[in-house]
Design a protein that fits this description.
This protein has 7 helices and 17 strands. It has 254 residues and is α+β, with helices and mostly antiparallel strands.
Length: 254
C-alpha cells in the first residue's frame, strides 16, 4: 500500500506549475522563499513530494485550487505593452489585451516593450518550462528593419555569431529581404533567449534596429491575426508544441 501511495506523489514544484501558479522555475523560487505550505506546514525543500489528489497546497496562506482548464493562447502583441503579469510602474501589460480570458495565463518567454509580434500565453507551467529550457533550442524568427545598408559581410557575421557583452551568440539563420532608402529588412532565426538579443546583434554589426517584430515561435505564426488580437491554439498546434517539448512522451518533462 505504501508503495502505491508513493507512486502517486510528484515533486511540489511540478504540481504547482501544473496548477498554473507559475513556471516550474518560478515555483521553485516560491518554495525556497517559504511562501508555499503543504497541509498547513511551510515547505522550503525543493525535493519535497506531494500527492496532488490528497495534499492541500497554499501560497501565502491562500489555497491553491486543483488544476484549471489548460489554455493555450496566441497573441499578436503590439508595441507599448510589457510582457508580464503586472508592472510596478503602471504600464500596460499583455494581459490587458486578453479580454474575456478567465484563466490565469502567463507569457512563454518575453518580447521587449517596443517589440511586436507573436507571443504564446498559457497556464500550462510544465510546457512553458520545457519550451524555455535552453536544451530544447526552440526557434524564434524576427523581422527587423535596421538602419543603413547592411552588407553581405555583416550578414555573414550574424550567421556565424557575434560577440556581445555576455559572450558570443550562437550561429543564426539570416535572410536579407530588402535594402532601400528606409534601411535594411532582415529576418533572423535564433534559439537563444538573451535579453534584447536581436537588437544587440544588429547594433554589434553597426545597424541599430528601427522596428522589430517576432513572426514565428516554435513553428507557430500569427498569420492574419490582427495586431492586438488573440486566439486559442488549435489542438494540432498544441500537440506540435508538446511534441517539440516532450518528444513522444505525452505530458513528460525533463
Amino acid at each position: 500500500m505504501s508503495e502505491a501511495i508513493s507512486d502517486n506523489k510528484e515533486r511540489l514544484q511540478k504540481v504547482l506549475a501544473a496548477r498554473g501558479v507559475a513556471s516550474r522555475r518560478a515555483c521553485e523560487e516560491l518554495i525556497t522563499a517559504g511562501r508555499i505550505s503543504v497541509n498547513g506546514v511551510i515547505v522550503t525543500e525543493l525535493g519535497c513530494k506531494v500527492d496532488p489528489a490528497k495534499d492541500e497546497l497554499a501560497l501565502d496562506g491562500s489555497p491553491i485550487a486543483a488544476p484549471p482548464r489548460l489554455r493555450y493562447i496566441l497573441l499578436n502583441k503590439p508595441a507599448g505593452y510589457i510582457t508580464s503579469a503586472n508592472d510596478e510602474r503602471g504600464r500596460r501589460t499583455v494581459l490587458d489585451l486578453l479580454k474575456g480570458v478567465e484563466e490565469r495565463v502567463y507569457p512563454v518567454g518575453r518580447l521587449d516593450y517596443d517589440t511586436c509580434g507573436l507571443l504564446i500565453l498559457t497556464n500550462d507551467g510544465e510546457l512553458t518550462n520545457a519550451l524555455l529550457h535552453p536544451s530544447y533550442q526552440v526557434d524564434k524568427t524576427y523581422q527587423a528593419l535596421a538602419e543603413g545598408q547592411i552588407t553581405e559581410r555583416e550578414l555573414e557575421r550574424l550567421r556565424r555569431g557575434v560577440r556581445l557583452k555576455d559572450g558570443m551568440t550562437a550561429p543564426a539563420e539570416v535572410r536579407l529581404r530588402r535594402r532601400d532608402a528606409k534601411g535594411s529588412l532582415v529576418e533572423l532565426t535564433i534559439h537563444e533567449g538573451r535579453n534584447r538579443q536581436v537588437r544587440r546583434m544588429l547594433e554589434a554589426v553597426g545597424h541599430p534596429v528601427l522596428h522589430l517584430k517576432r513572426i514565428s515561435f516554435a513553428g507557430l505564426q500569427a498569420g492574419n491575426l490582427p495586431l492586438g488580437s488573440f486566439r486559442d491554439l488549435t489542438a494540432a498546434e498544441v500537440r506540435a508544441l508538446q511534441k517539440l517539448a516532450y518528444g513522444d512522451k505525452k505530458g513528460g518533462s525533463k
